Amino acid sequence: MKFFTADTHFFHKDLLGNNAFAPRPFPSVEVMNQTIIDNWNARVKPTDTVYHLGDIALYFTHPASLSNEAVYNVLKALNGNLILIKGNHDSRAFFKYLKKRNFEVNGKPKFEFHDVGAVIKMNHRQLYMTHYPMMMGIVKQIINLHGHIHHYSVNVKENLNVGIDTPEKDYLNYKIPFGAPFSEADIEQMIKGKREDFAKRG
Predict the structure, then answer these.
(1) pLDDT in tens, 47-74
(2) 76 contact partners, CB below 8 Å, separation of at least 6
(3) Which domains does the chain have, with CATH numbers?
(4) Residue 2: left if φ>0, alpha if ψ -120 to 50, beta else—which one?
(5) Model pTM score
């Protein structure tokens, strides 16, 4: 099974509280991190694949090895093989740190890395997965899954924000737990919901 997420922002203490950009009503980053881990692992099996579309964490220490190790330990606690697409807060140095400590899960590397994006076919569509939203013009059977803009939605039906703060989770017919990645069925429901929403606007 494939899952999709973005903008977990592990350890990002400035997001704590009810800010307008990415409200995280948790008393500490430790509680926030653990909530995301628990909700992720409740739905993602060890044999699944998760596409993380950038901004894994925001945590800087001196030396950097301390924060790198802390974020690495969080990622190790997450179920599944992780395909990581670089966000604006993900440094190449951190990706190099992960590469040196990569290990096998299900006969494949735990971590796979992409600087710009990845493309897969799913349900007769092509999914272009990037951190930043792409403006593609008129396309058929192509959807851009992205993150970066947190509680905003691109005003184009072919763009779908899959970050954990996305307002487009409102297209689902249930309340997804905070931090849980979106399943293939969730993505289909969100695509359909956004298209129907745009059709009503006439």
Answers:
(1) 999 999 999 999 988 898 899 999 999 9
(2) 110
(3) 2-201 (3.60.21.10)
(4) beta
(5) 0.96
